[in-house]
Amino acid sequence: DSLIRKSPRLLIRDLKAENLEIGGNDDIFNISGNNLSTQPALLTESGQLKVVRGDGDLSVTLGLPTAATPSESRLQVGLSGMEISELEAQAGKELPMKGGTMDISGDGTIDNGVLDVPLKVTLKNTTVNAFGTELPLNNFPLEIKLYGPMEDPNLKIPTDALKNAATEAGKSKVENLIKEKGGDELKKLLPFGN
Q: Among candidates 105, 129, 130, which has minimal Cα distance to 118?
């Protein structure tokens, strides 16, 4: 009994499963892990489980708890090139953005089943309907926070980020209009007119 208390019942030092078909679609996944245990809090080295789809456009890495952090896990996510229309279909409702793609990266924690994951979202070649105006955005960074219980997580989008999006998109529209329609003399006076 004392041996079981000091070490986990099951410990997998190294795991590798490649070219797995999951869910009946054509997606292929690779799964790798190390120090996977039934009682990760008994380990001095943290465990890790990583799932990568296909060519790496989707990856999720879970850093498991250790004796030093028995209730906390690290969560890293990455998603590149997700079609906005695909996101809208998955959400099952109309989104305030149309066309283009998004990239998402995040690094945060899961502590006692509660998420705290700051996400960096980059919108590419999309149009956002904000404040009644359609704003074209390309390579626009947006910081979002995924938080709350894993069973019912929330997304927080800072209001300042949306205001900045509107300002930047509007500024780009004005700059482009002046570059296209403005006379040569006007262009010389503006910092972006060259």
A: 105
